[in-house]
Design brief:
By secondary structure, the chain is mainly beta. The protein contains two helices and five strands. β3 and β4 (126-137) form a beta hairpin. The chain is elongated and about 55 Å long.
Length: 164
């Protein structure tokens, strides 16, 4: 169970934090990212071309690198959830694009705690779910992509010896 009661977590739903600043989308970095995920799509190559390089769909994950995160954007995106890292897992990731992320974009991310709820699990006991939505906007303030991810904390360790 989280360190805080569910009602305290629910009280944070709808609040937002700036979590990413100045995510600069550079052609060479897009190409490196594409190589790292083993995607050889020519759209991701930084070559001499008339149009900007388009980034792979999951490129905004690079915003988790420390140089782009704001000081308050810890692993809980600046929210006080009290999740135990040893019992927390990544549950889901979804992307909703207004347009592709492109070379030349400078993105800012604002993360909102969209939903918190609990469900009974099996061996892990009560599971607490936190759903985050991060809106990435370009330098003009236009929405580019919304990233929705779910974190799950189990009520107790799964497998191994039970806690006393």
């Amino acid at each position: 169970m989280p360190r805080y009661p569910l009602a305290d977590l629910e009280a944070q739903v709808g609040t937002s934090n700036v979590t990413v600043r100045n995510l600069r989308v550079e052609g060479g970095k897009v190409e490196e990212f594409a190589r790292a995920i083993h995607d050889d799509n020519p759209e991701f190559r930084a070559t001499e071309r008339d149009e900007p390089v388009v980034a792979p769909l999951t490129f905004t994950r690079t915003s988790y690198f420390p140089q782009y995160r704001t000081a308050t954007a810890d692993w809980e995106f600046g929210f006080e959830l009290g999740f135990d890292r040893d019992r927390s897992v990544h549950g889901e990731q979804a992307y909703e694009f207004e347009r592709p992320v492109r070379e030349g974009d400078v993105l800012t991310g604002v993360t909102t705690l969209a939903e918190v709820y609990q469900r009974e699990g099996g061996e892990g006991g009560t599971m607490t779910f936190a759903v985050f939505e991060t809106e990435f906007r370009d330098a003009d303030g236009d929405l580019v992509v919304v990233v929705r991810n779910t974190r799950i904390e189990t009520g107790r360790p799964v497998g191994g010896e039970a806690e006393p």
